[in-house]
Design a protein that fits this description.
With 446 residues, the protein is of the alpha/beta class. Helices cover 37% and strands 14% of the residues. The protein has two domains: 4-211, Rossmann fold (3-Layer(aba) Sandwich); 222-372, Rossmann fold (3-Layer(aba) Sandwich), CATH 3.40.50. It has a seven-stranded parallel beta sheet, sandwiched between helices. Strands 10-11-9-12-13-8-14 form a seven-stranded parallel beta sheet, sandwiched between helices. Bound molecules: adenosine monophosphate. The site of adenosine monophosphate (AMP) has 15 residues, from α3.
């Protein structure tokens, strides 16, 4: 069995890895570490939970450690740029860089939107070797002339598929134009759509290609189950499951931000501590909810798909799809939150009559039938007629607030901009790219 020390990493990195308790490299690490160390471009297919972050971070640190640095520079130039789709993922990747690089004389920083820009300007003035950023805020810095990317030697696009889903392609193109031509490019993606292939073709130069976990496959160690239930019985069923099965740490996905807020209220009434995390929550509220959930003081974290990207919790035991996602790929992303790095996990979906088409799409996508189990006392009404699914929070259901008692104000009545935190249209509907990039678009997220 290959060990980390056989992969050509410096003793300082090995020490940090050992401290993390990692004994053997994961399959993606076994392939990615030597590939990145060659200095060549890389196209890697890896889902979250496979250990991909260390897969690019460890060899990246090794490369920067051994690469001659510009000793005459007044401040440390940015030599590695890591782009991520969400703030949470950016923060977590930078945390990994810090942890794995703690014994090396390299420093790192993270920049994302939703927080003040001035501390970031200060950070950039001081100089960092490795910068983790979301595209929107990075472009803000570029616009203000507060960042110099002329010395970047390595570019990483992490979760590239999600960045494209979120409408970041133009931002990415703009950023690419500002980078030196001669550099190493690493592209990590869970899925390979035509859009990703197109980006890879433009970006990568004769890349090494690696892939772990079958494309579009569901992480094998996760046990999956559906509970058919009536539309309005879902919250009592969820509370019942949490109470009777004594679930202590559950990540619950809802389709809309409003749905997330409403569920939190319903769970609180059932004496279950929960918090919602979504794009309309302030960055500090999101960070707090995530921290409390990770340390175990918060029993239930309710999240929308985009907000949940980048949530990194070891061995998360339970993931619940309170609503099925509109896009089958998101089902795989969601349940990938459990059973991380080989640990088993359980993914439960509460499915009502409106969602049978979505369920069929998911089963087709993962190429298997999901076990269905009716929970006694929660038998669905077999004569119920399906209703159209509400794809996003409606006017008057402003997230983070209760629906106003009085008629909605004009601003609340405006149709919600389909920002990246809103679910994408169901397959078949034409995606409104322009709307996706409107006011609450990439900048707001980045
Ligand atoms: P990632 O896919 O990068 O989000 O990583 C998933 C989880 O696996 C993270 O919580 C890491 O701390 C953990 N991890 C990464 N590499 C290893 C390893 N070689 N052995 C055990 N756990 C690991």
């Amino acid at each position: 069995m290959t060990t980390f020390s056989e992969l050509g990493l410096a003793p300082e990195i090995l020490r940090a890895v050992t401290e993390q308790g990692y004994t053997t490299p994961t399959p993606i690490q076994l392939q990615a570490i030597p590939a990145v160390l060659t200095g060549e471009d890389l196209l890697a297919g890896a889902q979250t939970g496979t250990g991909k972050t260390a897969g690019f971070t460890l060899p990246l640190l090794q490369r920067l450690h051994t690469m001659p640095s510009n000793a005459t520079a007044q401040r440390r130039p940015i030599r590695a740029l890591i782009l991520t789709p969400t703030r949470e993922l950016a923060a977590q990747v930078e945390e990994s860089v810090r942890v794995y690089g703690k014994y090396l004389p390299l420093n790192s920083g993270v920049i994302f939107g939703g927080v003040g820009i001035n501390p970031q300007i200060k950070l950039l003035k001081t100089g960092v070797d490795i910068l983790v950023a979301t595209p929107g805020r990075l472009l803000d810095h570029i616009g203000q002339g507060t960042i110099d990317l002329s010395q970047v030697k390595v570019l990483v696009l992490d979760e590239a598929d999600r960045m494209l889903d979120m409408g970041f392609i133009r931002d990415i193109r703009k950023i690419l134009e500002l980078l030196p031509k001669k550099r190493q490019n690493l592209l990590f993606s869970a899925t390979f759509s035509n859009e990703i292939k197109e980006l890879a073709d433009k970006l990568l130069n004769s890349p090494n290609m690696i892939e772990v976990a079958r494309r579009n496959s569901t992480v094998e160690v996760i046990s999956q189950k559906i509970h058919p239930v009536n539309r309005d019985g879902k919250h009592t069923l969820l509370a019942h499951l949490i109470h009777t099965l004594k679930w202590s740490q559950v990540l619950v996905f809802t389709r809309t931000k409003h749905g997330a807020n409403k569920l939190v209220e319903q769970l609180e009434k059932a004496d279950i501590t929960s918090m919602a995390i979504h794009g309309n929550k302030s960055q500090s509220a999101r960070t707090k909810a995530l921290a409390e959930f990770k340390e175990g003081s918060l029993q239930v974290l309710v999240a929308t798909d985009i907000a949940a990207r980048g949530i990194d919790i070891d061995q998360l035991p339970h993931v619940v799809n309170y609503d099925l996602p509109n896009v089958p790929e998101d089902y795989v992303h969601r349940i990938g939150r459990t059973g991380r790095a080989g640990a088993g996990g359980e993914a439960v979906s509460l499915v009502c009559v409106d969602e049978l088409k979505l369920l069929a799409d998911i089963e087709k996508f993962i190429k298997r039938k999901i076990v269905s189990e009716v929970v006694p006392g929660f038998e669905p009404d077999l004569n119920a007629k399906p209703q159209p699914i509400q794809l996003r929070s409606q006017p008057g259901q402003r997230s983070g607030q209760r629906a106003p008692a009085k008629p909605a104000s004009s601003s609340a009545r405006r149709p919600a901009a389909a920002g990246p935190n809103h679910p994408r249209p169901h397959a078949g509907a034409a995606p409104n790219t322009a709307a996706r990039r409107s006011s609450s678009g990439s900048r707001g997220r980045g």
